[in-house]
């Protein structure tokens, strides 16, 4: 019993720990890798011979910065400048369910998600007379033959009581 609980808590705790560690690493500014001594000598030698190129590389170009400040992105349809603070039509999330229980995207015809499969079995268990395989196939847009095979050979998790083993009638048979 304790081993099972330990496994479950480990499965929950491990992704959370990993996420915390990654966040902690990302908060710090990354340090560049140390340079090999031969590379440092080569860079110092190149700086001595090409001082103008290194100064030009490190110099701030005011003309370029001015052009970048004046640069605007216009919306092709409306002709208005686009800014990062623009309102969007995107809706905010309603609930904070886990991504496993949430359906993503549109399910194509003839296929269902695991959540829909659980709903299908729940409806079938609640009222098998109302939710026949034909009505379920129509509701979930599935092939009737495929759905009848799923209902026949696949089931949701169930608990089955252990059956009693048959006892021999004559104890002398055991020897």
UniProtKB/TrEMBL annotation:
Ranges of compositional bias, category Basic and acidic residues: 14-30, 48-57
Sequence segments annotated as region (Disordered): 1-57, 76-105
One annotated Gene Ontology cellular component of this protein: mitochondrion
Superkingdom field: Eukaryota
Cross-referenced Pfam families: UPF0240 (PF06784)
GO BP, one annotated term: mitochondrial respiratory chain complex I assembly
PANTHER family for this protein: NADH DEHYDROGENASE [UBIQUINONE] 1 ALPHA SUBCOMPLEX ASSEMBLY FACTOR 4, UPF0240 PROTEIN
Protein name: NADH dehydrogenase [ubiquinone] 1 alpha subcomplex assembly factor 4
Organism: Pocillopora damicornis (Cauliflower coral)
